[in-house]
Structure formats: C-alpha cells, structure tokens
Amino acid sequence: MRVRISHLVNSLTRQALFESVPGYVAKEVDFAALEAEARREHGVERLHRFDLGENPDGCTPRARAFLESLSPADFQHCVSSYPETDAPLRERLAELHGVPPRWIALGTGVVSFISILCHTFYEWGDRVVMPTPTFFVIEEYALRSGALPIYLPFAYEDGFGWTPRMTEQVIRQIQCVPVKMLWLCSPNNPTGHAIPAEEIDRIVQAAEESFTMVVVDEAYAEFVDDRPEFASAVRLLPRHENLVVLRSFSKAYGLAGMRIGCAIMSSKVVHDAVARQMEYFPVTRLSIEMARVAADDQEYLALTRHRTRERMATLQPAIRALGSFECIPTETNVFLCRRDGWSSADFRGRLMARGILVATADIEGLRGQGWVRITCRDPSENALLL
Asked: In what order do the strands lie in the sheet containing 148-153?
C-alpha cells in the first residue's frame, strides 16, 4: 500500500522530494531539541542565536505599544476572527513606496512569494538565472518546480559584491538564451551587499527587451533605504511590467514572528496571476495590524540602521583582531566569516560547543570554502561571540 500511495503524489512533488538544497537555515530543525543536544554534549545552558537575520532589539516601539494596548476582548477578536481587509496596510505601504495600493499583494513573508512566483511562472525546463551565492530558497524552489538554474558566481576578489562586470554577465546571459526569470537580492543574502541602482536599471531594461521576468528580493532593503545609490527597484515599476519587488517585515522591522511581507508589481496580468496562486486569508488580522503600526515607525528604522552600522563597525574588526579570521564587509546586519583551516561545519560545531549558533554557508557559490553567516546582535551578545 505504501508504494501505491507514493504513486499518487504528483510529478512536481516527487521532483521536490529529490531536490534538497543545502541552506543556512533548516526549517525542519527543532531548536529546542538542538539546544538540548548542546546542553547534553557540551554542557552549555542555552544557545545564543546568531544564525537568523532578526533585529536583536525586537519590534518597533509603536508595534510593541499597540500589542500591549490590546484589551482581552480586542486580542480575542484578533486571534479568533478572519481578517476583514488588508486595505489600510496596503495603503500605508503604497504611500511609503510611492505606488498605487492595487500594485501590492500581502503574504506570509518573502519566502511565500518566492514559492508563489515559482508556481505562477515556471514550466518544466525553464531557465532561471541567479547570481550566487544568494538566498538558497530561490535555488531550492526553482529545482522543486523543474526549472533549470543558471548560476553566475560572484568573485571572491570583489568581496562577493556587485560589479559592472556582473551586470554585463547577467545581460549577456539573458540575451543569449531564453530565460524565464532572473532573481536578484539587494541587499544580498548571505553576503549583505546591495546592488547599485544604476546597475538594476540596466538589467531590468535588458530583461524586458528579452522577455524575461525580474524579481528583486529586498528583504534587507531597510538597512540601505537611506542611501540613494541603493535606491529600491520599486521606482522602476511604473516603466517596467516585467518586474516584481519583494519586501519583508521580518528583518529591520523586527516582526519575523508575524510572518508578513509584500510583493509589489505594476502589471495587472502578473498581479492577477499571482493572486490566483495565493491562498485565501494569507495573513492574520494581528499580523496586518502589527505591520501597519510598524510601518508608521520610520524613526525606529533609522535608529536600527544607526545601531547596526555602529555595532558592525565594532564587531567585524574585533573578530579580525582574533587572528586567522576573515570577515566580508556588509551593508546589513548579516555577514560572512571564515577561519583558516576550518570547514563551515567545523566553525558551526566549535561555536555551538560554546553556546553560539551560527549559520553554515555551504551553499552554491560558497561550497567548500568554510564560510558561515553571522548576524550582528546587540553589544552584550556580540561580546559573547567574541
């Protein structure tokens, strides 16, 4: 009977079962069990998490105040009732990004939209271009969908950062063979580097001429929103319908537990197609309200940027001063680090024995190079790392 049931699984799911991409975050890991293992094997009381790109200072003060102000009846209403409308949040985001509210779709974070876009656009055998290293979920979901990734590796000599040479490489690739979709992360995860605005302009224009969709993952964009040279790709949407921009409340906003993000797109065809692939009531009433209040707290984002840059300016030199450690400069709160003679697994294991959890970065574009991804935390936690 077991064999017969396996035959009922559709072909794409069978494909997904065989496509496992090494990532720096494993959704299957039970953190409590991992912490218990560290306690049992290494005698550490707790694991300090440097493996997730969260805001160590938590959510915005206004979001926290809103949550604390809820009466028992209001809270009960939030958790027991279906959302009535997401219009107020879409209107606030539209105001922030200078686009019509109808261009915005809300979902459970950037990862959900990566999955939805794959289901919306990919046919079996479609070519998908991705500079690497990048957010590993992009590669994993492409493979699950039967698409064929084309990897364009960043150069270590450039600090895994974007260069005009990479722009030329991307444009040549989408012009020489049919490419269904191009994925860009700005700032990139796990390297922390943003793509200069003029480079994205050139790429989106070339992609439109080649009938290629472009998706820009801006989950970490709040860390560079004050820098004009890294202006959001949202500004290109009025001129380019082949573009989708993804944003998140999980990083700088500090709302990872609310699971909410958005996709912004100017094409009605794309918007309607994406909407058909989305579930009903994708985000909760509480998530919508928390995100709406957080979006009003732009002062907190400015403070987060300042704190992150100040802390990173202390943390990375301190790690380098330990000797034999290499850190890649970053524009966000995450960065790559390695030590001579250690593999990624060695690095993670040695720190776990001290109660520190970092993310291995043994992914496409970094495989076998010994890198881990570390999140900059608050000063007291960073002191534990050192």
From this structure: 104-107, 261-265, 243-248, 213-217, 181-185, 127-132, 148-153
* Phi, psi of 209, deg, nearest 5: -65, -25
Q: What are the structure tokens assigned to 7, written together?
A: 């035959």
User: In whole angstroms, what is the distance from residue 140 CA to residue 144 CA?
Assistant: 6
Per the structure block, which two tokens stand in for 317? 């030199």
pLDDT digits (tens, 9 = 90+) for 263-280: 999 999 999 999 999 988
Burial 239-265 (b: 16+ CB within 10 A, else e): ebbbbbbbbbbbbbbbbbebbbbbbbb
Claim to verify: residue 239 and residue 312 sit in the same structural domain:
no
pLDDT of residue 201: 98
Count of the separate structural domains present in the chain: 2
Nearest Cα neighbor of 246 from 110, 99, 94 is 110
Domain of 318 in residue numbering reads as 8-59+299-385
Whether 372 and 348 share a structural domain: yes
Return the H-helix or E-strand segment holding 146: none
